[in-house]
């Protein structure tokens, strides 16, 4: 096995081009488990933790560009105010030790349907910045990034450099089902993001289909249904319909963590609850603005 | 491969490290530092917690090669003068002994490192903060109550010492 330690991003792209079967390594919270258990013996490991500019972010007031090597703990502290949905999801990842090491970049690379970052990235409309030495930069919307169970849209010579997302233009919430408050892989999870200026709702479903998915029909229904200007209270029937459409968008399986029926039911409940929280926040803002 | 790493303040060179092995394996099997414990090898139990460049991490999930040029501090490096016979335990270690927070002792090194980090960042942690900080450290003996007592005691001692 080779252990490649590129000191710069250009070196990393060159190494990945030369060793397309090299497994990129950030915090190690997924990759090292597979190595420790002998489930994976890659020809090479590509350690990306020496590349300083992967561990920072830029916020020019428009979109925020977050480096693939920012650990969850720093994302929560440094970006929690601007990316509240993603920060809520990040707080549910593993334990403090795991959040000190694990990254959104690694979550995208692993592309597990249960990855906690994915639903809020989908709901916010995030874009993944991938790059190769041969073809340069490619911007991949999160909704097109997940292609199968633990598969993503990256080519063998590409690496994830960053993800781009606007600072939250409205309320965002994340909800996750598990057996305790730490060290839990989601039984299923859900994220919602309101985009009031576009009069649009974003959603993301985790751990209830072969890939993380949006609930497109639920988004369209709700975007048309909500009283964006008047901010009148949410009709119970609308919240229930939204929950049912979210459950319909999932394609869950029965497994050790839960049954397909349970996941559909839990998704409808999480969708209804997170929508209620988000809409109450939106309506509350209007009351604050009026007073 | 060769790994150059500073462990508990001392620069070290380790040879014949396998590229796929963990920092935990290197510490225990190649460097004679068995304080960090090997249990789950998947980041679930926290028994292998060490400081890596000042940040607590599960050493089973850090590739040994990722420690190149970095500073590692293990449970062996917490006590004052820990390399000498007259070494004095860290206040967190003393508190664990006094509070009876140790039974079989297997989880203790990880809990001590993680608690050490907590009270250095949060001098007077609430119970909720202690529970959150230790959520990734499993103990199958104590039921955790004595561990919570130990962390509160260590925080008090630390506050008194700096007052």
Automatic annotation (TrEMBL), chain A:
UniProt KW keywords: FAD, Flavoprotein, Oxidoreductase
The FAD-binding PCMH-type domain, residue ranges: 1-170
Source organism, top-level taxon: Bacteria
Protein name as it appears in the record: FAD binding domain-containing protein
SUPFAM superfamilies: CO dehydrogenase flavoprotein C-terminal domain-like, FAD-binding/transporter-associated domain-like
A Pfam family reported for this protein in Swiss-Prot or TrEMBL: FAD_binding_5
Automatic annotation (TrEMBL), chain B:
Residues annotated as domain 2Fe-2S ferredoxin-type: 1-78
Pfam families: Fer2, Fer2_2
Keyword list, A-Z: 2Fe-2S, Iron, Iron-sulfur, Metal-binding, Oxidoreductase
SUPFAM superfamilies named in the record: 2Fe-2S ferredoxin-like, CO dehydrogenase ISP C-domain like
TM stretches of this protein: none
PROSITE patterns documented for this protein: 2FE2S_FER_1, 2FE2S_FER_2
UniProt xrefs under Gene3D superfamilies: 3.10.20.30, [2Fe-2S]-binding domain
InterPro entries linked to this entry: 2Fe-2S-bd, 2Fe-2S-bd_dom_sf, 2Fe-2S_ferredoxin-like_sf, 2Fe-2S_ferredoxin-type, 2Fe2S_fd_BS, Beta-grasp_dom_sf, Diverse_Oxidoreductases
Name the UniProt record assigns to this protein: (2Fe-2S)-binding protein
Organism expressing this protein natively: Actinomadura parmotrematis
């Amino acid at each position: 096995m080779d252990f490649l330690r590129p000191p710069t991003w250009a070196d990393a792209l060159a190494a990945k081009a030369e060793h397309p079967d090299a497994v990129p390594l950030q915090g190690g919270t997924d990759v090292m488990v597979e190595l420790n258990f002998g489930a994976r013996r890659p020809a090479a490991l590509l350690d990306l933790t020496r590349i300083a500019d992967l561990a920072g972010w830029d916020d020019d007031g428009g979109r925020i560009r977050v480096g693939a090597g920012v650990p969850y703990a720093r994302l929560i502290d440094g970006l929690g105010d601007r990316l509240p949905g993603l920060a809520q999801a990040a707080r549910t990842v593993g334990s403090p030790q795991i959040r000190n090491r694990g990254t959104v970049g690694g979550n995208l690379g692993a592309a597990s349907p249960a990855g906690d970052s994915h639903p809020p990235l989908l709901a916010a409309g995030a874009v993944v910045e991938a790059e190769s030495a041969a073809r340069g930069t490619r911007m991949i919307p999160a909704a097109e990034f997940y292609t199968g169970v633990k598969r993503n849209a990256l080519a063998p010579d590409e690496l994830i450099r960053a993800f781009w997302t606007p600072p939250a233009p409205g309320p965002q919430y994340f909800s996750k089902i598990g057996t305790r408050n730490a060290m839990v892989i989601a039984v299923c999870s859900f994220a919602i993001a309101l985009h009031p200026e576009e009069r649009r709702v974003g959603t993301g479903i985790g751990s209830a289909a072969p890939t993380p998915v949006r609930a497109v029909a639920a988004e369209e229904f709700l975007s048309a249904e909500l009283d964006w200007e008047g901010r009148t209270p949410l009709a119970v029937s609308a919240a229930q319909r939204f929950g049912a459409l979210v459950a319909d968008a999932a394609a869950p399986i029965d497994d050790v963590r839960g049954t397909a029926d349970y996941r559909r039911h839990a998704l409808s409940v999480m969708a209804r609850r997170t929508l209620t929280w988000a809409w109450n926040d939106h309506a509350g803002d209007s009351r604050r603005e009026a007073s | 491969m060769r790994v150059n790493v500073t462990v508990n303040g001392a620069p070290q060179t380790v040879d014949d490290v396998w590229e796929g092995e963990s920092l935990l394996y290197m510490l225990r099997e190649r460097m004679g530092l068995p304080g960090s414990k090997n249990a789950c090898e998947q980041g679930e139990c926290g028994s292998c917690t060490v400081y890596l460049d000042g940040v607590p991490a599960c050493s089973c999930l850090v590739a040994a090669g990722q420690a190149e040029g970095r500073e590692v501090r293990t449970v062996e490096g917490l006590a004052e003068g820990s390399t000498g016979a007259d070494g004095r335990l860290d206040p967190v270690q003393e508190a664990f002994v006094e509070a009876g927070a140790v039974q079989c002792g297997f989880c203790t090194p990880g809990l001590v490192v993680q608690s050490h980090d907590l009270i250095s960042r949060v001098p007077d942690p609430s119970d909720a903060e202690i529970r959150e900080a230790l959520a990734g450290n499993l103990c199958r003996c104590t039921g955790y109550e004595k561990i919570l007592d130990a962390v509160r005691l260590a925080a008090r001692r630390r506050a008194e010492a700096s007052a």
